[in-house]
Design a protein that fits this description.
The protein is 46% helix and 13% strand. By secondary structure, the chain is an alpha/beta fold. The radius of gyration is 21 Å and the shape is globular. The mean pLDDT is 94. It binds coenzyme A. The site of coenzyme A has 13 residues, from helix 4 and helix 6.
Length: 289
């Protein structure tokens, strides 16, 4: 155990897209640490399965189906999970949509589909729950009130072939930093996590063409992908009472991948180190005296 068992006791956290992948890993971890969890998703079967797994492990969980592109569905789903599981104290904006496509080939509808899930869905969910918190706490929320949004390491660099996602995630990061200051007045924190490659069915089936996954794994500075449990523990820390001074931060969890890809000379690390050192030594100007 990374944390004490009741780290999140007293909290009730909504995880959008919590029926599968990283959302499910976070929901299960929060529940194991004593939080009540509510999960949303478009498909009922994975939600029901996740809730059953949490309950059979002794945790508290409930679900509502919700397409976060629809603000009215968000209001209904908030009512449903607060009726079933009690008032929410935290939110993880995890629901996402993404696929690989050349930008010139995107239809208007394709761009909309991703941006409406990732950016609009995140904003509308955050605003709807934030309004409830501000009204309920009369402007002085409990320090556990926290919005955590899952972005990506290309939120600040952009990325070819996932342009709608890059635009939307950049917007979510801007939303996070804006609200961190604006809603701090009410005691509400806002943070983000930027995961690199984590092998989940949803993401890898859409984003990793055959053969590419192995190259991606090998080129990661740590030589491996992330484990969902590692991301879930980072999220749990950001909800912990002692994380109350972390606000407006985006924590990267990618094994150092984006720094390597982003550095002009970073690809040199893929060469055998001895050869590289010999090349660099040969390039060094000779001493003249
Ligand atoms: N390449 C190009 N365009 C694509 C596409 C692809 N791989 N997949 C979908 N589209 C287009 C569709 O053609 C459609 O546009 P059109 O009406 O002009 O033809 C538009 O996107 C919407 O697709 P549709 O399948 O009707 O929408 P949806 O709401 O069912 O799906 C997506 C939304 C596209 C984001 C889908 O990938 C999805 O549901 N993803 C959820 C899970 C996910 O992406 N997880 C990974 C997160 S990292």
């Amino acid at each position: 155990m990374t944390f004490q068992k009741d780290l999140l006791a007293g909290q009730n956290i909504l995880v959008t897209g919590g029926g599968s992948g990283l959302g499910r890993a976070m929901a299960e971890r929060f529940a194991a640490l004593g939080a009540g969890v509510a999960i949303w998703g478009r498909r009922e079967a994975p939600l029901a399965d996740t809730v059953a797994a949490i309950e059979s492990a002794g945790g508290r969980a409930c679900y509502a189906t919700c397409d976060v592109r629809d603000p009215e569905a968000i209001a209904r789903a908030l009512d449903a999970v607060e009726d079933a599981g009690g008032l929410l104290t935290g939110l993880v904006n995890n629901a996402a949509g993404n696929f690989l496509s050349s930008s010139e080939d995107l239809s208007a509808n394709a761009f909309d589909a991703v941006v409406k899930i990732v950016l609009y869905g995140t904003f509308h969910t955050t605003q709807a729950l934030g309004r409830r918190w501000i009204e309920r706490c009369n402007g002085a929320c409990d320090p556990t009130a926290h919005v955590l949004s899952i972005v990506t390491t290309y939120a600040w660099t952009g990325s070819p072939f996932v342009l709608p996602s890059a635009c939307a995630k950049a917007g979510v990061l801007a939303m996070t930093r804006s609200l961190a200051v604006e809603w701090a007045t009410y005691g509400i924190r806002a943070n983000a996590i930027a995961p690199g490659p984590f092998p989940t069915d949803g993401a890898f089936s859409r984003l990793m063409p055959p053969g590419v996954a192995e190259r991606a794994r090998a080129s990661n500075p740590l030589g491996r992908f992330g484990e969902p449990a590692e991301l879930a523990d980072l999220a749990a820390y950001l909800f912990a009472p002692n994380a109350g001074y972390v606000n407006g931060e985006c924590v990267t969890i990618d094994g150092g991948s984006w720094l390597k890809e982003g550095g002009e000379f970073a690809a040199f690390v893929d060469h055998p180190r001895d050869e590289l050192k010999a090349t660099m030594a040969a390039m060094r100007p000779k001493k003249t005296r």
